[in-house]
């Protein structure tokens, strides 16, 4: 194995370790907060945390965000499974720690809600997600916060032009430059 390959392998192991640590901590926080919500909150009475902004109220949501798709919970669960697999594939393709962070948060959010759909299932992947953060217009959970935060980070990374794979981007830039040089030398030679 060349030095470049061993360096890349070590960097990949580091990104995978960071991804795994973030996911484990995030999933732990998500599941603990959901367990506490089920123990201490009521579906009928909200506990105001910040008046007009945030209350705590237990809700078991069969659908996705804002209750959408509540009749197709199994489909939402399958989409979450595929999303988690896609986040792992993307992790293996990026060389950016910032993108690794975003992917870890997205994975934790999708997996956190998928765990609920499996644990609280009454049939094939048709369980309900434990929501308890009531914003007045929507009720969510910590996994939803992770998904939102991941989306914001991804948008910022795209806006600031952070490459998903800097090594591949550098190789593509070099190939483009070489192609330009070849085309320029080909045009100049005919004059």
From TrEMBL:
The keyword Cell membrane applies. The chain crosses the membrane at residues 12-29, 72-91, 98-115, 135-160. Belongs to the peptidase A8 family. It comes from the Bacteria. Its EC number is 3.4.23.36. Coiled coil: none annotated. It is found in: Cell membrane. Pathway: Protein modification; lipoprotein biosynthesis (signal peptide cleavage). This is Lipoprotein signal peptidase. It catalyses: Release of signal peptides from bacterial membrane prolipoproteins. Hydrolyzes -Xaa-Yaa-Zaa-|-(S,diacylglyceryl)Cys-, in which Xaa is hydrophobic (preferably Leu), and Yaa (Ala or Ser) and Zaa (Gly or Ala) have small, neutral side chains. This protein specifically catalyzes the removal of signal peptides from prolipoproteins. It comes from Bombiscardovia nodaiensis. Keywords: Aspartyl protease, Cell membrane, Hydrolase, Lipoprotein, Membrane, Protease, Transmembrane, Transmembrane helix. Its main location: membrane. It is a multi-pass membrane protein. InterPro entries: Peptidase_A8.
């Amino acid at each position: 194995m060349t030095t470049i390959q061993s360096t890349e392998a070590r960097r990949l192991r580091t990104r995978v370790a960071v991804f795994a640590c973030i996911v484990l901590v995030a999933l732990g926080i998500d599941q603990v907060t959901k367990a506490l919500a089920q123990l201490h909150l009521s579906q009928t009475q909200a506990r105001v945390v910040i008046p007009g902004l945030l209350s705590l109220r237990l809700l078991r949501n069969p659908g996705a965000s804002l209750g959408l798709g509540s009749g197709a919970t199994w489909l939402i669960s399958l989409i979450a499974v595929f999303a988690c697999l896609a986040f792992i594939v993307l992790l293996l393709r990026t060389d950016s720690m910032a993108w690794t962070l975003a992917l870890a948060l997205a994975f934790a959010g999708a997996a956190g809600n998928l765990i609920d759909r499996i644990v609280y299932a009454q049939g094939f992947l048709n369980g309900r997600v434990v929501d308890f953060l009531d914003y007045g217009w929507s009720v969510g959970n910590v996994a939803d916060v992770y998904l939102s935060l991941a989306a914001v980070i991804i948008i910022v990374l795209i806006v600031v032009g952070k490459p998903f794979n800097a090594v591949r981007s550098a190789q593509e830039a070099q190939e483009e430059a070489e192609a330009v040089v070849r085309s320029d030398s080909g045009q100049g030679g005919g004059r």
